[in-house]
């Protein structure tokens, strides 16, 4: 794995959470589901910087994306990030951006 943020400084707000690709599957609704698993716990305290949500409890990230590539050049893809209930799995759902949606 290439990490351009090396060396790690031990700062819980700056050091990355590392996940590796685990599976890629087709799903109903013409979706591709990619699942990423945490490599290991970071061993750092939780980042309490204002406005941040801790990713410390997340062990898997499931990414749902359209199986067909968007052909329109003037449109970007946006996403919604949701936690799957009380579980330690987070879902990222890619979708077409809405008309006046700001990409930041």
Automatic annotation (TrEMBL):
Source organism, top-level taxon: Eukaryota
Protein name (Swiss-Prot/TrEMBL): Uncharacterized protein
Source species of the chain: Rhododendron simsii
